[in-house]
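pipeline stage [seq->struct] | target=Maleylpyruvate isomerase family mycothiol-dependent enzyme | organism=Streptacidiphilus fuscans | residues=275
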Amino acid sequence: MTDKQTVQAYADAWTQSIEAISELVTPLSEGEWNRPTECPGWSVRDVVSHVIGMELELLGDPRPIHTLPRDLRHVVDEFTRYCEVPVDKRRCHTAPEMTAELEYTIIRRSRALRGTRYEPTDEVRWPMGPYSREIPYHQLLRTRVFDVWTHEQDIRRALRAPGDLDSAAAGITRDYLVELLPRAVAKLAGAPAGSTVVFDVHGAQEFMTSVHVDESGRGSVDAMVPLAPAARFSMDWETYARLACGRISPSTADVKSEGDEVLAHRILDNFSVTP
């Protein structure tokens, strides 16, 4: 695909996933908005508030002026504090207020995506608090697809409404997370130079890939799968995504590992690659 076709594919995937969130939460009763999700410290309402807050910031709306309570245990650094402000601000909002704001945000953001003047490689601001920086426009859109799909899955699991594990947004998320595997294997887990680790993932997003660590200790994704890797993991796609996004503990995940047990444990302990 061309760069413009890629950007359009990201916009389409974002639209499908955020509209799925809207469809999931619109019929909820007031109490159902308070169901806890796997996203630490956040309810369904909080997850939706985060999605709204991020999209509004990308639209150029000012961030809310709000003082956070001091007893939020999941707020542990400047990044989580940054994310929490638009979330805590909406904790007193009613279900109709939440659904109305979400619907209006989707309308505004969709209009902005259709009318954008940005070229795929134009540098744009990525508003993420202490991680804020300039990134290419296409990269910003892909990151939004990843974030929205991940939170769609948070909501689905909280509501026991599985789905969209095979959507376009899921495929984009798969590729995004695979690109981060070398960081988990080589940098965080410290896999030895010359070693290769294999990941065999089945289910809605089926793939097999490996991470090879070169003599300088740098990891890279490799399509070649050796017969005797240092470690090999087998799991389904949903488990892979939940682990990579820090939603479940490796000790509770249904993962089969083979090879060097010490290395396998280190990799799983460092598998979460999201902030």
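stage status: PASS
auto-comment: The longest strand covers residues 196-202. Strands lie at 123-126, 133-136, 196-202, 207-213, 219-222, 231-236, 256-259.
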